Amino acid sequence: MIQSIQKWLLKLNVEKCCGMSFAANIKNVCTTKYYIEEGKIFYEIVKLDSFRDLGVIFDSKQNFGEHIKEKNNKAYSVLGVINRNFIHMDKSTFVLLYKAMVRPHLEYANSVWCPFKKGDIENIEKVQKRATKLIISLKKLPYLERLRQLKLPTFKYRRLYEAILLRFLI
User: Whole-prediction pTM value?
Assistant: First the structure.
């Protein structure tokens, strides 16, 4: 690698370089130390347990729990903004606001971090359950009935649909 860096005259910012090992079990994590040579000085690459790349939080176990928690909190805060500023919403206004301001937080790059744990799946769905209760006329209806009237699918259905589309596009 050092030869290719010198060959292509690629300068690395050593302060921004880091390393991470991915493993399902902590015992299997690689403990090798890596270094970058700059001139005659060798800098050790810092090892991280989690890092953010393109808005997705990766951790060494690849369970994305921290990422899902952060995205849920962001979606709830946006719901709070909608609730405070749009007191009496009709269905079409809600759907427009929801699709534009809330759902993107919960779906961005979900082909990478797609939840597989039941608790994570339920926590993501709770955001939509709470959101659909913001419409006063639908508040007392069951969740699936609210979705039917708003013509919104569940997040589980959307992830499955996107996975099938992605499979056919590749």
Answer: 0.79
